[in-house]
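Per your request, structure below.
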């Protein structure tokens, strides 16, 4: 039987927007949508996915693969705090996970599965009982889970973190907060620190650019922005500019491009038509940032 996610992938983008506008107004919490698979932030409660994502960013951060004693910070961990377990298994001293809400799984199942996955690969992880809570996981991995977004970053000490990573998150940071988030990341990063970010510029509706059809006034209105499909729509060139302006040396290590625009330029709102094809064709990129 196809999963809820497979079914959702085949729904036309207009119907998806309409459905999400309606469903996000129902008095049901994120845990409910997470269980039925309709509104999910990603796949971080799947051990294989979580391990692959965290390993990739760590390996990019340090060629020596020696993470002993590091303090690491993830922006936007999403559906679990598994990242903290993986970082612990890699030997980091402490991990900080910053999100904008308490979206991580609270039950022990995902964390016990993550522990088994790590143990089978020879990593040391704390033993987790059936009654283990998310708080126990965090404590045993020397991790904090902060859910105030920008305000949480602001509360962290200057130059206290060696490594910052994010996976499919930067495009979801509110447009009006993006520069401030990058400034905060720069402030808390040590002078010898490094960031690794994977950015997905597709529309989160049908892997195209249908989000660029809307004017800024409509798209950024609370009605749309709080409906579970928000992306800040900053384009590749704009993000790179902001990274530089906020004090980073920018090294783009991978870029994925569409062969042709997936959404016709004439259907886009005026503010996006000014971008070159070269810019609009970028669908994903991976970047390493170091203090300038
Ligand atoms: C698409 S999910 C990706 C989750 C996870 N990284 C993954 O790969 O499955 C985007 C995540 O970014 C978080 N996010 C958005 N704005 C943020 C901000 N300003 N600070 C921290 N996290 C943020 C969202 O709450 C969400 O957990």
């Amino acid at each position: 039987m196809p999963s809820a996610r497979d079914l959702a992938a085949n729904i036309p983008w207009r119907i998806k927007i309409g459905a999400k506008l309606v469903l996000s107004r129902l008095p049901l919490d994120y845990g409910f949508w997470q269980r039925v698979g309709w509104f999910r932030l990603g796949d971080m409660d799947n051990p294989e996915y979580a391990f692959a994502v965290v390993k990739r960013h760590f390996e990019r951060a340090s060629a020596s693969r020696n993470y002993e004693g590091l303090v690491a910070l993830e922006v936007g961990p999403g559906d679990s705090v598994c990242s903290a377990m993986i970082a612990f298994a890699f030997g980091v001293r402490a991990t900080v996970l910053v999100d904008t809400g308490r979206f991580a799984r609270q039950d022990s199942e995902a964390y016990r599965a993550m522990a088994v996955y790590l143990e089978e690969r020879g990593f040391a992880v704390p033993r987790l009982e059936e009654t283990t809570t998310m708080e126990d996981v965090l404590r045993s991995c020397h991790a904090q889970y902060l859910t105030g977004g920008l305000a949480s970053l602001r509360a962290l000490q200057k130059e206290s973190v060696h490594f910052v990573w994010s996976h499919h998150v930067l495009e979801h940071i509110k447009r009006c907060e993006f520069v401030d988030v990058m400034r905060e990341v720069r402030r808390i990063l040590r002078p010898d620190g490094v960031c690794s970010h994977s950015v997905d510029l597709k529309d989160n509706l049908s892997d195209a650019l249908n989000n660029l059809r809307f004017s800024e006034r409509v798209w950024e209105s609370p009605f749309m922005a709080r409906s579970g499909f928000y992306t800040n729509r900053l384009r590749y060139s704009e993000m790179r500019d902001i990274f530089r302006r906020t004090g980073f040396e920018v090294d783009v290590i991978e870029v994925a491009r569409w062969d042709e625009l997936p959404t016709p330029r004439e259907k886009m709102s005026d503010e996006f038509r000014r971008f070159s094809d070269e810019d609009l064709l970028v669908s994903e990129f991976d970047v390493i940032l170091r203090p300038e």
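DSSP finds 14 helices and seven strands in the chain.

Regards,
D.
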